[in-house]
Amino acid sequence: xxxxxxxxxxxxxxxxxxxxxxxxxxxxxxxxxxxxxxxxxxxxxxxxxxxxxxxxxxxxxxxxxxxxxxxxxxxxxxxxxxxxxxxxxxxxxxxxxxxxxxxxxxxxxxxxxxxxxxxxxxxxxxxxxxxxxxxxxxxxxxxxxxxxxxxxxxx
Length: 155
Fold this sequence. Notes:
The protein is of the alpha+beta class. The protein is built from three helices and six strands.
């Protein structure tokens, strides 16, 4: 254990040895695809798959969905919902995430079948901006579960 009262200065080489390969390089290898979206009122359901994955050498179970990719595709789904809600058939607004809360309940391990349920809590227009608050459940067929709350707007 480190003496917490001692000041430590790490060199670039030491930082490299302690850093996550995934965060430095592996994350750039990940890509996802939205396969299907269904919208009914304040509910959106989507099916996604990973087009490209990264598997960490330190994870003995193989692939696991990361919160980083998850936030990307949830943001995309929120943008899609907001444009659809406003009656727009193509992206004309910039999306801005204002607040997020994530909870990883169980790891999502299936890269080929990721399911999203988005429940819109609030959607409104103020001037030219569209504001949305939504709760998400991200699951797979193996019992994986992420619970996410996002607030954002389109301007």
